[in-house]
Design goal:
elongated, mainly alpha
């Protein structure tokens, strides 16, 4: 929400037209929702689910608590790896959908 508000304020100062402000606000809100909330959440959920499944199968001698902490560690370690590809994919998606549909 902070990024969306920041982009809105900058657009108001740059070009006070309501349509431009709404387009910029919508773009920022949609991009942030996809790139910061929805896609990373689903991706991390799947990484943790599959790593937990693999650990149960291949590290069954490790206690459950240890496997759970290993799953958490795998999920946290994957965050720096998934950020750039998700950002790039969302930008590409926005360029061929929203930004193309909302021509100003």
């Amino acid at each position: 929400m902070a990024d969306t508000a920041d982009k809105s304020v900058k657009m108001i100062k740059k070009d006070g037209r309501a349509k431009m402000v709404l387009v910029e606000t919508g773009d920022a809100l949609l991009w942030q929702t996809l790139a910061s909330i929805i896609i990373p959440g689903v991706t991390l959920n799947r990484i943790c689910a599959y790593s937990q499944r693999a650990l149960c199968k291949y590290a069954s001698k490790v206690p459950v608590g240890g496997r759970n902490w290993m799953t958490v560690g795998i999920g946290l370690a994957s965050i720096p790896i998934i950020v750039r590809p998700i950002d790039a994919a969302v930008t590409a998606l926005m360029n061929v959908t929203y930004r193309r549909w909302i021509k100003v």
